Amino acid sequence: MRGGQAKAVPLLAPALILQTLFFLIPISMIFIVSFTSKDTFFFEPKYTFDNFVRMFRIYRIDFQNTLFVAGLAGVIDVVLAYPFAYILLRHVRRFSDIFRAIMIIPLFGELYIAYGLFYLILPGGPVANLLELLGVPALQVLYSLPMTILGMTIYTFPFAVYNIGISLQGIDRALEEAALCLGASRAGAFLRVILPLSLPGLISGWLISFGWNLGAFAIPVLLGGPILGSRVLSVQIWTTSLVTSDFGMGAALGVVIVLATVAIFYVVLKLTRGVLV
Amino acid sequence: MKHKSRARLSNGLHYFYLIAVCSLILLPLAITLYRAIVVEDQGRLSISFDAYKMISEAFWDKVGVSLSISVLTVVIDVLVSIPAAYAIVKYNFPGKRIILTYLNGVWYVPGISYGLSLVLAYFFVFKFLLGFWGFVAAYSTGFMLLTLMTSIVAFRGLDPVYEEAARCMGAGRLTAFARVILPLVGPGVTAGVLLVLVLSLNEFITALLLTGPTRISTAPLHVFADIRHAGIRPFVAAEATVLQLVSLTAVVAYLKLFGSRYLRGTILI
Known about the structure:
The structure holds 2 protein chains of 2 kinds.
Chain A: H1 2-33, H2 50-58, H3 60-90, H4 96-102, H5 110-121, H6 128-133, H7 138-142, H8 145-169, H9 173-181, H10 186-214, H11 218-223, H12 225-228, H13 233-243, H14 247-271
Helix pairs in contact in A: 3-8, 3-10, 5-8, 8-10, 9-10, 10-14, 13-14
Chain B: H1 2-37, E1 38-41, E2 44-47, H2 50-53, H3 57-90, H4 96-103, H5 111-124, H6 132-156, H7 161-168, H8 173-202, H9 205-214, H10 219-230, H11 234-258
Antiparallel strand pairs in B: 1-2
Helix pairs in contact in B: 1-11, 3-6, 3-8, 3-10, 5-9, 6-8, 6-9, 7-8, 8-11, 10-11
């Protein structure tokens, strides 16, 4: 064991140094700054708990909006991703690599997803005329909750597919066959064997989608319109710290999101027994 | 006969569902591309690449900056991840799981919080990084997980007998690593290279926070600024497709060369 440690340390050192310099130190700083008032950290730090006390009063709506849109997008993600992963793993061979490859596209970033959907609905865009024919004002659809949720759903869909897929891959097919041999129908075997066994993947898929969408920025800004677009936590962190220079409050909001996502990933790691996204 | 047609119907429904969901995923890219290249003239639609000619030189400069940052990020991540992954797979030592979790730490932190923490760290601790290298350091740390995980998967899939055989035949530890192990795990490691390249090229939120203090702008930031100022004008759509098409080309080329097997278990099922 000791020999292993001695050989491993120099090999791990560059990665550990990189993470310490540009992850641990910066994250520690955001924690420290969150306990300082306004931008005093830059001159003469005034330490206070006030940011955390005031935060939930001032930004109550932002917390509600963020939790709601991220949570609902996560639910839609797992509802769509479960059959997708199940079919891809169990029933499809031809073109399966193409379906898999398409899952990389949302990773290009939420900015492009938001922009594509923005143009789709904007007056003059491809769907706007159809909406007008149906008597629905395009702008009402564009800057709306459903569009924001649709954008987030697309953004985090691959993470839900991955988590559910990993869970489904871990289920021994003999269990399903045994249930069928013992007289269960296909639906019965699915509901009483496959679904309960893949539940950790389903939950972790939702949690991961939720966690990633907590930090989504371009989607609410471009699709949420002036009301929702400015009242989510990620946008507040940016405006509070970099626009109005209240770094203390911005850092405190950042800390809350960090703690929430760390808790989420902890649960996911427990559920998936250490399988990472 | 009845059974056969039912199976065919079920198979058709499976493909229909996958295609429907994939269409939804592809919709934003497809619609942006449509805006960039389809022109309506007196009710008639035609294809034109004029929007790409209207892209400003400033944008192409920023594409160059983004590509430089991404290439350096890939190089650093590969150099750092391969030895770390080898150590994690090959040796047993106390606290291995904790170290692995620590190395993956950035992945657990939303980009907006990570970006803000970097702004603070660059202002107070790493003032010399207030520039191009600030981006490289941030991206290398942020995306290291991807090369690390793909390298770990590659090393785990490697039979130790090859290394042992090389050592038995007189190769030193370093020679065996460089001439036997690295060529064998290379294709697996390339999956990480692809993912880091694609994600760092398109990274937006960390860049949005770093751009102020570092005074460096990237292509995704230029697109965001143009979206806010020029909305849906065709040249903005063209800009938005440039890095997506570069990334898509990289993904397609990779899949042609290696298929999806090295990506499975890392980010794909």
